[in-house]
């Protein structure tokens, strides 16, 4: 007999004779002639109530079943006599496949997030984290569907790269050289003897590869892991995170902002429609304002604001910020939050940033001091998207590379794309974990990825 998922059973229209269910016991309640088991199999938030008659052969073992134990149930799906659920399973036979003794850490109903982070291997078995990782999966699907419906091609950019896309130097090296005794040349490590014959690192962004493919396939996107060795201990940074990076040929900054708006709205509406039960849990236990935030994100048109105008607003605000703000300085979280949560009270896209705080590949504006960059800022989460129109003019790009003292020879292939059939093009990176924070109201990024990687923490 084929196993049925609990999600399927709870949606049944009619009673079903003979069902096979497999899952883990969440709670057990005994009455005089029956035991009631709440069973969860991860297919949905809701548990299945299983009624066990005392006439079952192994009933005495059932009445000792503890939270977390794995069982296989044979029985009939019947209308429930109790309140709170439409269906229950009346068990004919229960096989105990994996006991969880008293030492099982998830006995209590509610634990702190800090505690659960110390048992990241077990936390998916709680209601909250089960919901997080189901939404993570749904959201991934919705992203692929969003792009496919719009004719974008899914491409795979390399994880190991020879270039630093963002130029921020936050790279994890990839090497097979001996760390104790590496080969040296003129006092420096000789990477020409390394596996790839030169220095290699984990990618910080799939963008440069995506650009090459966009200039062939038109509209493309990547969706994969990226790595940053930035030593930031904030609730919005992890060293390994997933990024969604669309790249569009024949597209300027306007078109780029249009896509950014469209994808955020579309994904928010999708999750609100498809993940009702899981969202309800977050709205109840994590963030009371979640549904109104999601409504706002799905329905409002973000403000599009040049960086210089953002500066003016911040200066006129009369608010004392911890960090000063002047042309040429990057906006800090406190500035971003002020604009989004206090001043405009809705999502904001800031564009045309000073060139000195942005990477080499962004298109230089006519004023010669700003570039066609954009950041999308959301309530609570802050920056969720960073993107730009790319510099497509060979001469201007070469000059930028020179001015920033970047090794021009290493970018020969990138410059080739500007040498042959260069066109205006744009793209952005959407931080997948930041997006999940927005969707769930969870305020620590460590709690939306199964096994978070942060400084001094790589348990698994
Ligand atoms: O703004 P970033 O650095 O942009 C890029 O990497 C571009 N190359 C993307 C592109 O144009 N194709 O990063 C993009 C987004 C940020 O807005 C943020 O949401 C997320 O990636 N992000 C992080 N998320 C979690 N932890 C970190 N350490 C992150 N760094 C960036
Ligand atoms: Mg950024």
Can you put this structure into words, describing what you see?
By secondary structure, the protein is α+β, with helices and mostly antiparallel strands. Helix content is 30%, strand content 25%. It has 13 helices and 18 strands. A hairpin with a 2-residue loop joins strand 9 and strand 10. Helix 4 crosses helix 7. The chain is elongated and about 85 Å long. The mean pLDDT is 96. The site of magnesium ion has 3 residues, from strand 17.
What is shown here, in short?
The protein is of the alpha+beta class. It has helices at 6-10, 59-62, 113-117, 127-149, 207-217, 253-274, 276-285, 290-299, 307-316, 333-344, 394-403, 412-419, 432-440; strands at residues 16-30, 34-40, 48-53, 70-79, 87-98, 153-154, 160-161, 173-174, 184-185, 188-189, 200-202, 219-227, 240-249, 303-306, 348-354, 370-378, 382-389, 425-431.
Could you list some keywords that capture this structure?
single chain, 460 residues, alpha+beta, OB fold (Dihydrolipoamide Acetyltransferase, E2P), BirA Bifunctional Protein, domain 2, 2 domains, 8-stranded mixed β-sheet, 5-stranded mixed barrel, 18 strands, 30% helix, 25% strand, binds 4-amino-1,4-dioxobutan-2-aminium adenosine-5'-monophosphate, binds magnesium ion
Secondary structure topology:
Blueprint: H1 6-10, E1 16-30, E2 34-40, E3 48-53, H2 59-62, E4 70-79, E5 87-98, H3 113-117, H4 127-149, E6 153-154, E7 160-161, E8 173-174, E9 184-185, E10 188-189, E11 200-202, H5 207-217, E12 219-227, E13 240-249, H6 253-274, H7 276-285, H8 290-299, E14 303-306, H9 307-316, H10 333-344, E15 348-354, E16 370-378, E17 382-389, H11 394-403, H12 412-419, E18 425-431, H13 432-440
Parallel strand pairs: 3-5, 6-12, 14-15
Antiparallel strand pairs: 1-2, 1-4, 2-3, 4-5, 7-11, 8-11, 9-10, 12-13, 13-18, 15-16, 16-17, 17-18
């Amino acid at each position: 007999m084929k196993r049925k998922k609990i999600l399927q059973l709870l949606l049944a229209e009619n009673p079903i004779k003979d069902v096979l269910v497999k899952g883990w016991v969440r709670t057990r309640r005994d009455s005089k002639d029956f035991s009631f088991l709440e069973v969860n199999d991860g297919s949905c938030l809701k548990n299945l109530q299983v009624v066990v008659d005392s006439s079952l052969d192994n009933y005495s073992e059932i009445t000792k079943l503890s939270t977390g134990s794995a069982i296989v149930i044979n029985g009939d799906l019947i209308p429930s006599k109790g309140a709170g659920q439409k269906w229950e399973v009346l068990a004919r036979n229960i096989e105990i496949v994996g006991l969880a003794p008293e030492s099982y850490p998830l006995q209590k109903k509610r634990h702190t997030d800090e505690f659960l982070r110390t048992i990241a291997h077990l936390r998916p078995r709680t209601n909250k984290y089960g919901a997080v990782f189901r939404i993570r999966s749904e959201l991934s699907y919705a992203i692929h569907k969003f792009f496919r419906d719009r004719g974008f091609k899914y491409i795979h950019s390399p994880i190991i790269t020879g270039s630093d896309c963002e130029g921020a130097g936050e790279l994890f090296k990839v090497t097979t050289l001996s760390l104790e005794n590496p080969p040296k040349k003129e006092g420096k490590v000789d990477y020409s003897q390394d596996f790839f014959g030169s220095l290699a690192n984990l990618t910080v962004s799939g963008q440069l590869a995506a650009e090459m493919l966009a200039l062939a396939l038109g509209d493309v996107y990547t969706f994969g892991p990226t790595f940053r060795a930035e030593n930031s201990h904030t609730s919005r940074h992890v060293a390994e995170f997933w990024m969604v990076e669309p790249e569009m040929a024949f597209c300027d900054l306007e078109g780029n902002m249009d896509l950014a708006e469209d994808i955020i709205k579309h994904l928010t509406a999708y999750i609100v429609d498809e993940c009702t039960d899981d969202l309800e849990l977050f709205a109840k236990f994590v963030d009371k304002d979640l549904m109104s935030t999601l409504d706002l994100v799905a329905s409002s048109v973000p403000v599009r604001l040049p960086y210089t105008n953002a500066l003016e607003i911040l200066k006129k605000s009369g608010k004392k910020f911890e960090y000063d703000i002047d042309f040429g300085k990057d906006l800090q979280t406190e500035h971003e939050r002020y604009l989004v949560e206090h001043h405009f009270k809705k999502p904001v896209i800031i564009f045309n940033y000073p060139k000195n705080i942005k990477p080499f590949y962004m298109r230089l504006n006519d004023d010669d001091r700003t570039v066609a960059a954009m950041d999308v800022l959301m309530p609570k989460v802050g920056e969720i998207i960073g993107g730009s129109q790319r510099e497509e003019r060979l001469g201007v790009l070469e000059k930028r590379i020179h001015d920033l003292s970047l090794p021009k020879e290493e970018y020969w292939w990138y410059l080739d794309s500007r040498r042959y059939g260069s066109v205006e093009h744009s793209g952005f990176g959407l931080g997948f974990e930041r997006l999940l924070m927005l969707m769930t109201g969870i305020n620590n990024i460590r709690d939306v990825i199964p096994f978070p990687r942060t400084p001094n923490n790589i348990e698994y």
